[in-house]
Structure formats: structure tokens, C-alpha cells
């Protein structure tokens, strides 16, 4: 158990988060699945346990400081370290889809809700867990971003994401990419690698039924970045092994 890798995946009760936990578990990683309620987290962990995966559930509302501290204490008491942190939990605006652009009319409430989960909670959870990650021989932090956070692609003429200008969501992912860049540089020399992952356009409640990718493929980038070796990327924006423009 001492040498077995331990991973925490936020928002892991369904979709890409659950599939990420499953794929890591299938490779022998102990996985901790978080969800907003303990019951939901345990139900997800139990599904993996039935497949022979070493899985645990814990409740975590990522925007709640008390929950973040409780998760850190749980990991410290039970495992003494954390090898992999996958900041998977994310939201879109409550009342509209990714295709509805309303840049100047974006409300303060929408900004606070989207940034609260997609950026601020990632920063603060990572800060809470970093002492445990530093105890790992090869700590890995994976931030679930989106190609919609690429300023380079949004600025291109005839951009492939031209129609997807949802300011609150896109800006939150661009800011998350900046966090990845800054933290990776700050942690150089520690053995910890920090990367942003674009999972792809995946059939999830957020991605919708029109998405071309299945959930199993959507989890692959996170899993790959969680298990990279010493020669793997650091401070990069990656999709299925390919680097994306910031």
C-alpha cells in the first residue's frame, strides 16, 4: 500500500470524472472519488469496488473551505500522501448552454458561480492538498480545462471554435490555464508536474448528446497526464498527447 499511487478525482460520481477514476483504478491506482454528497460518492466508489478497484468515496463541495480541509485531513490520516490530483469538477452557467453567447450581458451572479467552481475552488483545493502531493515521489496535478479557454484559437480568423463564445465559461478556463502555467513554473525542481487537459467534446450533461466523443475517450487525456514519467510534459495544455495553443 505504501508504494501504491493514490489519486483524488473531483466530481467523480459520473461522466468524465468517474471514467477517469475507473481507468486509473484499472491500472492499479487507489482512487478517491469525490461528489457533493457522501452517499453519491460512496455509490460511485462501490461500483468500482465491484470491479476489483481500490476505491473510496468522500463528500466534497469544491467551493466549500470546510470540505476542502476535511478532504486533506482524510487523505493525510488514511494514506499519508497524495500522488495524483485531478481537478475535474466544473460547471457552465446555470441557465444557458455553451452555444448561447451574451458577452456584455453576462451577469455578476454568473461570473461568480462559474469562476467559483472552475477557477477559485481549483486554486484553493490544490493549495490545501499540495503538502500531501509534495510527499509523493512523483506528484501529478491535472486541471480539466477546455479548448474553449484558448485565446489563440478564439482570436484566429475562421476559428474552429468561432461559434462558442460563452464568456463566463471560456474565461474561466483561460484563467485556469494561467494557473496551470504559473503553478508549474513555481513547482519546478520539486518533481511535481502540472498540466491542463482538454478532454475533447464529449457526450456528457455539459457536452450534450451532439458531442462526437464517448466518455471513455474523454477520460484518456487526464489519465495519460496523471501517469506521465519524468520526461513527460509540464506546464502544458494537452489533448490526447498533442499540445494545444494557450
Automatic annotation (TrEMBL):
InterPro entries membership: CBR1-like (IPR045313), NAD(P)-bd_dom_sf (IPR036291), SDR_fam (IPR002347)
Q: Which UniProt keywords apply?
A: NADP, Oxidoreductase
Concerning Gene3D superfamilies, the annotation shows: NAD(P)-binding Rossmann-like Domain (3.40.50.720)
**Pfam families cross-referenced by the UniProt entry:** adh_short
Keyword Transit peptide applies:
no
Recorded coiled-coil stretches: none
Q: Reply yes or no: does the keyword Oxidoreductase apply.
A: yes
State the family it belongs to. Answer: Belongs to the short-chain dehydrogenases/reductases (SDR) family.
For this entry, the protein name equals SDR family oxidoreductase
Q: Which organism is it from?
A: Mucilaginibacter aquariorum
Taxonomic path: Bacteria, Pseudomonadati, Bacteroidota, Sphingobacteriia, Sphingobacteriales
Amino acid at each position: 500500500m505504501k508504494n501504491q499511487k493514490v489519486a483524488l478525482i473531483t466530481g467523480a460520481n459520473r461522466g468524465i470524472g468517474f471514467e477517469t477514476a475507473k481507468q486509473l483504478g484499472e491500472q492499479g491506482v487507489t482512487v478517491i472519488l469525490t461528489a457533493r454528497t457522501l452517499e453519491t460518492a460512496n455509490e460511485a466508489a462501490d461500483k468500482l469496488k465491484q470491479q476489483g478497484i481500490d476505491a473510496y468515496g468522500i463528500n466534497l463541495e469544491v467551493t466549500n473551505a470546510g470540505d476542502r480541509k476535511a478532504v486533506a485531513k482524510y487523505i493525510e490520516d488514511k494514506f499519508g500522501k497524495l500522488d495524483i490530483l485531478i481537478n475535474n469538477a466544473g460547471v457552465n452557467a446555470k441557465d444557458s448552454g455553451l452555444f448561447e453567447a451574451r458577452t456584455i450581458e453576462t451577469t455578476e451572479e454568473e461570473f461568480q458561480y462559474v469562476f467559483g467552481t472552475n477557477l477559485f475552488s481549483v486554486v484553493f483545493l490544490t493549495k490545501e492538498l499540495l503538502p500531501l502531493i509534495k510527499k509523493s515521489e512523483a506528484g501529478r496535478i491535472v486541471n480539466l480545462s477546455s479548448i474553449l479557454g484558448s485565446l489563440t484559437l478564439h482570436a484566429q480568423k475562421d476559428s474552429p471554435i468561432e461559434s462558442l463564445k460563452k464568456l463566463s465559461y471560456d474565461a474561466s478556463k483561460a484563467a485556469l490555464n494561467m494557473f496551470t502555467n504559473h503553478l508549474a513554473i513555481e513547482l519546478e525542481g520539486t518533481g511535481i508536474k502540472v498540466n491542463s487537459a482538454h478532454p475533447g467534446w464529449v457526450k456528457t450533461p455539459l457536452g450534450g448528446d451532439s458531442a462526437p466523443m464517448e466518455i471513455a475517450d474523454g477520460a484518456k487525456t487526464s489519465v495519460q497526464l496523471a501517469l506521465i514519467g519524468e520526461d513527460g510534459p509540464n506546464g502544458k495544455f494537452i489533448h490526447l498527447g498533442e499540445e494545444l495553443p494557450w
